[in-house]
User: Fold this.
Amino acid sequence: MATFSSATKAEAVVPVERERVWAVLTDPDLVARLTPFISSITTDGGEHWIWHMSGLTVLGKGFEATFTERMTLDGGRRLEFDHDPPSGTKERAGVHGWYALADHADGVLLETSMEICVDLPLPRLSGGAVRTAMRGVIAQMGNRFSKNLLNHLGV
Assistant:
């Protein structure tokens, strides 16, 4: 196993009220339905969301993982997530990042930044090809999530 990572940043103005976008981003069931390759998101009843990912293929290798994120919510304006597996547990994937929402004349400015790390059964020497594939998957996930979000919001 080797660990690979890739990062992304994005921003967009969504022509709805900030509260509507916040309501989506803080609903784990809805986030799972809108996010490709995420089969479900469960919670521990507290600040942790457990993400269940499946259906991915990276360089011909199927990949699925469950990973735990500590979610920190800041009053409708910022949502941070940090990989925080249960003590003694090794998870094959994790994400560190945030969503920021700010009122905008045309709706809400939605910004995001995240770094995704995965352990894959591939040699470390394949790092360049894996990171390229990861960037493609992340872009696809982001584009499809954005489209799904806008459709859900009726935009």
